[in-house]
From TrEMBL:
Pfam families: MFS_1. GO terms for cellular component: plasma membrane. SUPFAM superfamilies: MFS general substrate transporter. Gene3D superfamilies: MFS general substrate transporter like domains, Multidrug resistance protein D. GO terms for molecular function: transmembrane transporter activity. It is found in: Cell membrane. It comes from the Bacteria. Its main location: membrane. It is a multi-pass membrane protein. It comes from Furfurilactobacillus siliginis. CDD domains: MFS_MMR_MDR_like. This is MFS transporter.
Length: 467
């Protein structure tokens, strides 16, 4: 493939990856608008976010395994069209039921895209350029993850919530046409496809059971009998899934891929970083719009400090990773996270906005420099590139979902400590309670970064010891 075509395809695949990741986070800031316009309670409107994330997590592994058998490009291109159809339907929705169905269609297309984009990139670029190419893709994916509140605020400042979904259409169509023109058109056959249906059925039951328990626990408390029962069911299904995968001829996931310490620790550390990123998505819109009384448009502009710096740091981090290794640059990047997290732990409304913008900008620098995709894909064998990409995307979405749940739970738990009773909404009469809950939450976010540093330290130490 010509060098120019490689970079065009990278731009096309990364653009679709950006949109599919963006749509997991951009809706957060529009939930109040959706709730009011559709006339539904806030807790029901929040399912617009949850349904998308849970379905993606449920479908990713299936399409990752399928892509290793029939090819990644057909699944990616089909997924792009399905995602665009879902985006159009979301934008046209006039009821919560239709919007949730449309989000399901979006999730189907998004899972097909996310499961294949990393594998496509490692296939079309030589090994010596994997860090740079995956670093650029990482900038798109990570910007999509963290730009949601900022971009959503800008859109809501100019138009209604429907345009959050309509903006996907021109970008997606252009990306699809570029791909259709340049990608190899190879015949697709399903004759030799083998799917571990028992394993997948177990996995597809495990994921919703676990997340329903998490969301239910947030509302009813984690000592509720129903929540405990679902968590127990999820644990049993996880054990059953592992047992099935070890005893079938063609497993959904070749578990030996996790024997590579770099791959396994890369997956875990990436999940932790995405969890921390979602703390900003949950907490910062409240802080800016409710505590500081800024408009959605101004809040969006401030939050754009994260993706703007991420755009520059991710490709640079990718280039450096080609020279010193993705693990080492990621290890250094984790220490940069301490700067924004400490600012967010101590910031007060009386502080200048410059401190907040600086903290968000440094978060963007750290997030971009953390080279999780090159680290994960570089530690997976060539025969595992499809499923490895799906697992990487799954870890990202699990991290986002865990982050959403953990940040929300910690925030309201912290507010409840100051209120001396359980809280599930912003305390409009006591903004100081929210500040306490915010600081309380970010202490835990800092702890997650500390865990990631410990894991990466162990990995680098074991590599050095093995030499």
């Amino acid at each position: 493939m010509k060098k120019q075509s490689q970079w065009i395809l990278l731009a096309a695949t990364s653009s679709v990856s950006f949109m599919s990741t963006l749509d997991a986070s951009i809706v957060n800031i529009a939930i109040p608008h959706i709730s009011r316009q559709l006339g539904v309670p806030m807790n029901e409107a929040e399912w617009v976010v949850s349904v998308y994330l849970v379905l993606i997590c449920t479908l990713l592994i299936f399409f990752g395994r399928l892509s290793d058998q029939i090819g990644r490009i057909p699944i990616f291109q089909t997924g792009t069209l399905v995602f665009l159809a879902g985006s159009l339907l979301c934008g046209l929705s006039n009821s919560l039921a239709i919007l949730l169905i449309a989000r399901g269609v979006q999730a189907l297309g998004s899972s097909m895209v996310m499961a294949t984009n990393f594998g496509i990139i490692t296939e079309i670029f030589p090994t010596s350029q994997h860090g740079r190419a995956l670093g650029i893709n990482s900038s798109f994916v990570q910007v999509g993850n963290i730009a949601g509140p900022g971009l959503g605020g800008l859109i809501l400042g100019l138009a209604n919530w429907h345009w959050i979904f309509f903006v996907n259409l021109p970008i997606g169509v252009i990306a699809f046409l570029f791909g259709h023109h340049i990608f190899k058109h190879e015949p697709v056959t399903f004759k030799n496809v083998q799917v571990d249906w028992r394993g997948y059925a177990t996995f597809a039951t495990l994921i919703p059971a676990f997340f329903i328990a998490i969301y239910w626990g947030q509302a009813a408390g984690f000592n509720h009998l129903g929540v405990i029962s679902l968590l127990t069911l999820a644990a049993v299904l996880l054990g059953l899934f592992i047992w099935i995968e070890q005893h079938v001829a063609e497993p959904l996931i070749q578990l030996r891929i996790f024997n590579n310490r770099g791959f396994s620790l890369g997956i875990i550390s990436a999940m932790l970083v995405y969890m921390v990123g979602f703390f900003n998505n949950v907490i910062m819109p409240f802080y800016l719009q409710e505590t500081l009384a800024l408009s959605a448009g101004i809040a969006g502009i401030i939050l754009m400090a994260v993706p703007l710096l991420n755009i520059f740091s991710a490709p640079i981090g990718g280039i450096i990773s080609d020279h010193i290794g993705a693990e080492r640059i990621s290890f250094y990047a984790l220490f940069i996270f301490f700067i924004p997290e400490l600012i967010f732990i101590f910031i007060q409304p009386s502080w200048s906005l410059i401190w907040l913008v600086f903290g968000l900008a440094m978060f963007g620098v750290a997030n971009g420099a953390f080279q999780n995709n090159p680290m994960i894909m570089g530690n997976a064998g060539k025969e595992f590139q499809g499923i490895a990409g799906a697992i990487a995307a799954l870890s990202r979405n699990l991290g986002m979902t865990f982050g959403l749940s953990l940040a929300t739970s910690l925030l309201y738990f912290g507010i409840g400590i100051k209120a001396h009773h359980r809280m599930t909404a912003y305390p409009k009469l006591h903004p100081d309670w929210f500040i306490f809950g915010m600081h309380f939450s970010y202490v835990f976010a800092l702890g997650l970064i500390g865990i990631a540093i410990g894991l990466m330290s162990w990995l680098l130490w074991s590599r050095k010891k093995a030499v």
